[in-house]
Amino acid sequence: MPIYEYLCDDCGEHYERIVMNGNTKITCPKCASAKSTIQLSVFAAPSNGTKSSGGSSSGGSAPSSGGGCCGGSCGCN
Fold it and tell me: What is the pTM of this model?
């Protein structure tokens, strides 16, 4: 079940909805308008690399779960 982000064309409200199928009617929670635009979503994905700093107590080569906004692969954390 994907979660889609929408922008209401009438009032400008940003909101998210779980869409079960293509027949799901989407309405704005603020003004109940059916006019909306699907927005691009940014999502987090696990990193496939390892962190270059910080010691791991395991000492193995398993990837670190970076967390943060992007899983640590961009160096933001």
Answer: 0.51
